[in-house]
Amino acid sequence: GATAIAGRFTPGTFTNQIQAAFKEPRLLVVTDPCADHQAIMESSYVNIPVISFCNTDSPTKYVDIAIPANIKSIHSVGLMWWLLAREVRRMRGDTPRTIDWDVMPDLYFFREETKEEEEVAEVPEVQPAQDTYNAAPVVADPFAVAAEPLAAAAEPLTMIAPASTFPAKEEWVAEPATGGADWGAEATTTDWGAEGTVDWTT
To answer: What is the pTM (predicted TM-score) of this model?
Structure first.
């Protein structure tokens, strides 16, 4: 199949292998040699054959096969593409020459969007009815109001947390029930020296 490049041709498509849009086509078919001069120039660098529709004033440099056509008219360009596509299908054997091709040439015409298609459909504004302004207020049913607390009491208002799977933590603040050292009492003096006094004067 063929890959169409519509719009602006990115420079380096045929020569710069780093960019994501890099292509290596075996054949290049262009509509206007003047508008597609960048693609024709790059195809000459990598030896890609070029087929182009040419008018009487179109440059044919680096163009291998020139097809005479009127490229100034939208309908003429679309008809030439339709004829080229039909001939390719006939040469490949997809469409016999004894049977007419059922594809209409209108599908190859470039059609610009009209102003009606570009405009977004406006959403119609819905005006409330006049009787809604003067409507009587709706009175709530007292029996329905009285039944609400009963329905609410059926379900608890608070959520119960699930039981924890972790072991209980020790309470460091609580004091033991029995015993306990008195840290405020005065410490007893302990004699860490010898048992008796030693007379060092003798």
So the answer is: 0.51
Position 115 scores a pLDDT of: 60
Q: Is the pLDDT of residue 85 over 60?
A: yes
Q: Are 43 and 67 in contact (CB under 8 A)?
A: no
Following DSSP, what letter does each residue of the chain receive, concatenated? ------SSPPTTTTT-SSSTT----S-EEES-TTTTHHHHHHHHHTT--EEEEE-TT---TT-SEEEE--TTSHHHHHHHHHHHHHHHHHHHTSS-TTS---S-GGGGS--PPPHHHHSPPPPPPPPPPGGGTTPPPPPPPHHHHHHHHHHHHTS-SSPPPPPP-SPPPP-SSSPPSS----TTSPPPP---S-SS------
